[in-house]
Amino acid sequence: MKTRLVYGALAAAYFLSWGLFTGVGVVLNVLCLPLLLLPCRESLGPFVRGLIRGLFRLWLRWFQMTRCLRITWLGFGKPFEGRTIYVANHPTLLDATFLLARLPDTICIIKPRLMRSPAVGPMALLGEYVAGEAGIDLIRNVAMKIAAGRSLLLFPEGTRTQPGIALGTLKPGFALIAERAHADVQLIVIRASAGLVPRGRPWWRPPPVLPAHAEFTLDQRWPYDPARRTRDLTAEVERRLSEVLAG
Fold this sequence. Notes:
By secondary structure, this protein is of the alpha/beta class. It contains 8 helices and 7 strands.
């Protein structure tokens, strides 16, 4: 009986977490809509990215304060370097929000349908995030932003990992961007509870075991090397990820 009561309280906190996330997000994005018409909206980018990072940090603290989610950060105490492409596996829906709360001045590539959504798109556009349209234009656009000093968070699987496997096949886009921007690649390894919003599980459905757990590890770094081919870099990152996740 006590176990059920504890789970019920944690599940209620989990639901409330998403309610707060959705409510605050909608209000802020509606307020940002008029700012998209400003001719100098690009100058708002650093402020909006800082605001997004701060809001994600508050959300992260809420999860930890309510004890419905335990989060472990390994290696994140070291200073971060600019012009870095952070690549990670993608087991849960929460990966990007938690990482953007910790990484400095980092943009990410989001799905085009989310960029068009009035509940997400305005802040993403003001923060200079990029819609994930395939093609050379996307690579050129993102590489220019990284060359200007920003960092990029990218999930090379392209979607959340398929349940039942440790890692999907990595797409080479991150390596092409790194080559064009002359940027380093930093691997982040994510481990999470199996029921923590994996692919195919609705976001509103709480994990079967609470508190859930997520672990983020700052792993190997590949400095920019003009002699390294993009397919070799892709293979090296995929091999390292597979080795760590299998350990």
